[in-house]
From TrEMBL:
UniProt name for this protein: 2Fe-2S iron-sulfur cluster-binding protein
The entry's keywords: FAD, Flavoprotein, Membrane, Transmembrane, Transmembrane helix, Ubiquinone
Transmembrane segments: 12-31, 207-230
Residue ranges of every copy of the FAD-binding FR-type domain listed in the record: 339-474
SUPFAM superfamilies: 2Fe-2S ferredoxin-like, Ferredoxin reductase-like, C-terminal NADP-linked domain, Riboflavin synthase domain-like
PROSITE patterns: 2FE2S_FER_2, FAD_FR
Domain of life: Bacteria
Pfam families: Fer2 (PF00111), NAD_binding_1 (PF00175)
Organism taxonomic ancestry: Bacteria, Pseudomonadati, Pseudomonadota, Gammaproteobacteria, Alteromonadales
2Fe-2S ferredoxin-type domain span: 243-339
């Protein structure tokens, strides 16, 4: 099934590109000037009148004897003179492979179309500037007329659109005119009919292969849909059922029986019973954290195959987010967190930058939650309507959103995870720094979670589970902390820094050495810069390295990317065994940094990262 899905996705890319080409070429066909597209800009459609006394024609039998064998013979006129056109090999159409001879109708002498005569014939059908640049005898394939299978003279005239007139070499027939207008139109005909080999026909191997790819796309899509249905991914809530499932912890100790609905996946169903499994992807099947062992075994999904070995799958290991309670009798939970579900009330929402907001929540009806700095929470985003531009956008920020077109859309319920941006040692609120994910070209919807949360009105509430403590400072360590982040990766790193400063003030001890490398695009994107400058001014052990990738001319600090500034200062940080690294930011930044650190000899145990992507 994994292979089918991969092939389906790549096939959809091929089909999608060709559909786009069809759309673009179709629009062009509706807008183009058909006279120009046919190459007829300088074509003359007047013909010379010819009067010839047929009584003077040589006897047909004599001509046939001299030019045998011939399939047919017929009179024709070239530049006002009479000839016999004898056909020796006849194709279905004139442009197909044919063999002709020309004989003077009055003398019976053989007539040959040379370059001089071809030029005169061409001028008869041409009404533009008369100067020529070249005359060539071309044999097929002929680029301007790919369907033409017979040799032809190409007469190139000197004009503003580079007109070429083609005269068939054996018959003297006008093949046609071509110019820059027609050649441009031919590009769109090629794209529309997938004639990438320039055969002049839509009955080509490319379109045949495309038909098979489209057939495969439909067939594999049907297989995928049936597979999802068999795995219970399509469920109507009205027809949902509930059943009891016996739970065990990883030591096979009974946790009792819970009632789960087969409308909700096992991960979200357990949360209704205050049982939280670790998950950073929100149930997308990508993080592989919500590991359970199911009995009897359910059919494995493609996500299961990614995160479990064949042996583990045979033992019943599955991802809770990918399965429902149907036919589940026993379930062993491999890793249960102490996170709980809470109702959060928004107390404050403010813009930090044009595209990032700080949200402050209070826990409804509960005492403040305690957690380690660097933790995150998973929000339950309800189904509803969204907008592409934030509501109540401050006037001074509107210029930054002018390129975003207003869009209203509906979205389904989902979950999204966000890191806490402040330590519980400095606030009793839950603080989040969230970047609003935009959709500038309507190719995808805006970020559902970030748009919903950043458009919440103060005083409104939302449910969230957590905090999940997976990224935190090592306890009782006095090693130098090196933090690296960019964008909204600021949140957990800020929390870690505030925690260390708070511990220093509470316990009246020296602050451990901290080096904070942070990257942003411009000065306006630097989050909490004043706060970190103040930390650095008041604490000799704190070092702040703000870095801008697209600074203004007035910027006096470091330029480039945060990981580059880290590498430049690496030797000044201290001995490698006395360093701990904490990373949070875009995946490319973290991958590049981890590779750099390992190349320098930093151990895996000294590198912690929060992959918010």
């Amino acid at each position: 099934m994994i292979l089918i899905r991969k092939i389906h996705k790549w096939a959809s890319v091929i089909v999608g590109i060709q559909f786009l080409l069809w759309l673009l070429s179709g629009i062009y066909f509706n807008l183009m000037d058909h006279t120009k597209a046919a190459g007829d800009t300088y074509r003359s459609h007047t013909h010379q009148q010819t009067e010839v006394n047929n009584n003077n024609f040589i006897d047909l039998k004599e001509v046939l004897i001299n030019f045998k064998p011939a399939i047919s013979i017929e009179p024709t006129y070239i530049l006002g003179k009479a000839y016999y056109l004898l056909t020796h090999q006849k194709g279905l159409y004139k442009n197909f492979k044919n063999r002709y001879s020309l004989a003077n109708a009055l003398t019976g002498d053989k007539m040959v179309i040379d370059s001089t005569l071809a030029l005169e014939i061409a001028k008869q059908s041409y009404n533009g500037p008369s100067d020529t640049s070249s005359i060539k005898l071309l044999h097929p394939p002929i680029e301007d007329f790919p369907k033409q299978k017979n040799a032809a003279w190409q007469i190139n005239f000197v004009n503003d659109i580079n007109t070429s007139v083609y005269i068939e070499a054996e018959s003297g027939r006008l093949v046609g005119h071509s110019d820059d207008h027609k050649r441009f139109a031919d590009i769109f005909f090629m794209l529309h009919f997938m004639d990438y080999a320039n055969e002049g026909s839509f009955n080509n191997i490319q379109i045949i292969l495309f038909a098979f790819i489209t057939l495969w796309l439909s067939f594999s899509g049907l297989i995928w849909t049936v597979d999802l249905g068999l795995r219970g991914q399509y469920r109507i809530k009205y027809f949902s059922k509930s059943q009891g499932v016996k739970l065990f912890d990883k030591n096979q100790k009974s946790m009792g029986t819970v009632i789960l609905s087969n409308h909700t996946n096992l991960l979200d169903g357990l949360i209704e019973h205050d049982i939280a499994l670790p998950s950073t992807c929100g149930g997308g099947g990508t993080c592989g954290r919500c590991r359970v062992m199911i009995n009897p075994m359910l059919k494995s999904t493609s996500a299961d195959h990614v995160h479990f070995s064949d042996k583990e799958l045979q033992q019943g290991y599955r991802l809770a987010c990918q399965h429902f309670s149907t036919d589940v009798e026993h379930m062993t939970l491999m890793d249960v967190t102490e996170a709980k579900k809470h109702t959060l009330v928004l107390s404050e929402s403010r813009f930090l930058t044009p595209f990032m907001k700080e949200l402050r929540f209070k826990v409804l009806g509960e005492v403040p939650i305690s957690y380690k700095a660097g933790a995150f929470m998973r929000f339950f985003i309800p189904a509803g309507k969204g907008v592409s531009i934030p509501l109540n956008l401050p006037e001074h920020l509107k210029a930054n959103w002018h390129h975003i077109e207003h869009l209203e859309y509906e979205h389904l319920a989902c979950t999204r995870s966000y890191s806490l941006a402040e330590s519980p040692l400095v606030t009793d609120e839950l603080v989040f720094t969230i970047k609003i994910q935009t959709a500038p070209q309507h190719k995808t919807l805006p970020g559902v979670g970030s748009s919903y949360l950043c458009n919440m009105a103060e005083g409104s509430s939302i449910e969230a589970i957590g905090p999940f403590e997976e990224f935190f400072a090592k306890k009782d360590s006095q090693k130098t902390m090196v933090l690296l982040g960019a964008g909204s990766g600021m949140a957990p790193l800020k929390s870690l820094i505030e925690e260390q400063v708070a511990i220093k003030n509470i316990e009246n001890i020296d602050l451990r050495n901290i080096h904070f490398f942070y990257g942003a695009r411009s000065e306006g994107d630097l989050l909490y810069a004043d706060e970190f400058y103040r930390f650095a001014e008041n604490n000799e052990s704190f070092h702040y390295y703000p870095t801008l990738s697209k600074p203004s001319d007035d910027w006096l600090g470091a330029t480039g990317y945060a990981q580059e500034i880290l590498s430049l200062n690496f030797e000044t940080l201290g001995h490698i065994d006395d360093l701990e690294f904490y990373l949070c930011g875009p995946k490319n930044m973290m991958t590049e940094t981890i590779n750099f650190l390992k190349a320098k000899g930093v151990k895996d145990s000294a590198i912690a990262f929060d992959d918010f992507t």
